[in-house]
Design brief:
Blueprint (H helix, E strand, L loop, with lengths): L4 E7 L17 E2 L8 H14 L4 H5 L18 E11 L2 E7 L4 E6 L4 H4 L8 E4 L1 E3 L14 E3 L6 E3 L3 E4 H8 L9 E3 L4 E12 L4 E15 L3 E8 L6 E6 L4 E7 L9 H7 L1 E6 L21 H4 L1 E5 L2 E9 L4 E3 L2 E2 L4 E2 L3 E3 L5 E6 L5 H10 L8 H9 L4 E4 L6
Parallel strand pairs: 2-13
Antiparallel strand pairs: 1-14, 1-16, 3-4, 3-14, 4-10, 5-6, 5-9, 7-8, 10-11, 12-13, 15-16, 17-24, 17-25, 18-19, 19-24, 20-23, 21-22
Helix pairs in contact: 5-7
Length: 400
């Protein structure tokens, strides 16, 4: 297996990171999607590599010019995006930034003394962690798993959103520790919205349409921030010039050293249980349940959902899953939209009780292969190469 290669991707202009929502009609507003899907990195890196090697892009799109590592549009070859995250330059290295895991809640205590806040840049934050617990006896519910995530609170607080966890903070979370508030970054520290006014054009006359102004939200990354990718199965040069997002805005990709958070798989195997964290959106056959999980059975509510994938077996007994999103995109090779699919957002957490005898090697294979079956159909093979369904394994902590 070839070594994974990491690149720090820095935009040289504002970016148009478009999601699924249509815009362009009179008065419409096109909101940016941050962070973008990992398919953004896959498409940009593959296109840059093909252009650099002088491949006829038209012949490649038609499947007539297979690449030894990129394959064809229908069969992506060995190229796989293993990670794609927001990132920043920190202490002469590149540090990835992650959405908060769904079992963490950042809060400002309700009883915080207003005088304590006076003169401070921001109110003090507390991070609190949910733990799986069985519903109270006699409490009827429709939850299909035996445990539900419960957030213990000794005092009430107001949830704070728009926060990102540093690589160091995620390393703490993977080890079963509670990250510190100084390991959080606000959205405004990473990027800022930059609305742009556009006007619809008449394709026949190539002139502006009357009364057809619209707004598209561009993204301006802060200095020292960008994205970081990790690719396996392809030989990428140290530096690349990329076209990124809508309108192909310029960006640079530079090979770099990255402090990727890594779990202690030996300790997880010894403990006999784990948490699974989605680091990119998940496309699963059973909706919110990850690949490898059997459809909920009659005994799922008492025993958990059976899980078996890449040599790891066990039962999923609890889950913290944010509201589903929809993944689509544009297929340049076929010049048509990609199928829209419901996805589990990055940050979802699953609690997994491992079967006896589970080894660290099996856990490593699961983390490397991602939440994909051993054999994928054409659509899933494409999405796999684009970096969806990536995950990390973490220690299951005993206390909040």
């Amino acid at each position: 297996m070839t070594a994974a290669i990491s690149h720090f991707i820095q935009p040289l202009d504002v970016l148009f990171l478009r999601g699924n929502r249509l815009f362009g009609a009179a008065g419409s507003y096109g909101e940016a999607l941050v962070p973008p899907w990992p398919s953004l990195a896959a498409g940009s890196l593959r296109s840059a590599l093909l252009a650099r090697e002088g491949v006829d892009l038209g012949e490649f799109a038609r499947g007539h010019a297979p690449h030894p590592e990129l394959g064809t549009p229908a069969d992506p070859g060995s190229f796989t995006v293993e990670a794609f995250q927001l990132a920043r330059e920190h202490e002469e290295r590149i540090e990835p930034l992650y959405p908060l895991p769904a079992d963490l809640s950042a809060q400002v205590p309700n009883d915080e003394d207003e005088q304590t806040r006076e003169g401070s840049d921001a109110p003090p934050l507390e991070l609190r962690r949910s733990l799986p617990a069985a519903p109270a006896a006699g409490l009827e519910n429709s939850h299909p798993l035996p445990y539900v995530p419960v957030l213990p609170e000794t005092r009430r607080g107001k949830p704070v959103t728009g926060l990102w966890l540093t690589g160091r903070g995620l390393a703490d979370w993977l080890a079963g520790n509670l990250p510190q508030p100084d390991e959080l970054l606000g959205t405004a520290q990473i990027w800022a919205p930059d609305p742009r006014i556009g006007i619809a054009l008449n394709p026949a006359t190539r002139s502006a349409e009357d009364a057809h102004l619209f707004t598209a939200q561009a993204v301006a990354m802060r200095e020292g921030t960008g994205f970081v990718s990790r690719v396996r199965g392809a030989t990428l040069p140290e530096s690349l010039a990329l076209r990124l997002g809508g309108d192909g805005r310029a960006a640079s990709a530079q090979q770099c050293a990255v402090d990727w958070p890594e779990p202690d798989l030996e300790a997880i195997a010894r403990s006999g249980r784990a948490r699974i964290l989605l680091t990119t959106p998940g496309l699963f056959a059973h909706g919110w349940l990850p690949t490898g999980t059997a459809a909920p059975a009659d005994d799922s509510a008492s025993r958990g959902a059976a899980f078996s994938l890449h040599g790891v077996e066990g039962r999923i007994v609890a889950a913290a899953v944010p509201r589903a999103e929809v993944i689509s995109g544009w297929d340049l090779a076929s010049n048509r939209p990609k199928p829209a699919r419901q996805a589990v957002p990055a940050g979802a957490v699953y609690w997994l009780e491992l079967a006896p005898g589970t080894t660290a090697d099996a856990l490593q294979r699961l983390a490397t292969e991602g939440l994909w079956p051993a054999h994928c159909d054409e659509e899933d093979a494409t999405r796999r190469a684009e970096g969806f369904n990536r995950c990390l394994l973490a220690t299951w902590p005993e206390t909040a």
